[in-house]
Amino acid sequence: MGKSIPQYLGQLDICKSVVSLATGAGAIYLLYKAIKAGIKCKPPLCSNSPICIARLAVERERHGRDSGELRRLLNSLECKQDEYAKSMILHSITRCVYLLEAEASACTTDDIVLLGYMLDDKDNSVKTQALNTLKAFSGIRKFRLKIQEHSIKVLELISTIWDTELHIAGLRLLNNLPLPDYVHPQLRRVMPALMEILQSDYILAQVQAVRLLSYLAQKNDLLYDILNCQVHSNFLNLFQPTQSGSLLYEVLVFAERLSEGRNAPHYCAVKWNYNEQSLHESLFGEESRLADRLLALVIHPEEDVQIQACKVIVSLQYPQDLRAWPSSCQPSRSYFKNTE
Question: Does CATH place domain 179-318 in 2.40.160?
Answer without folding.
Answer: no
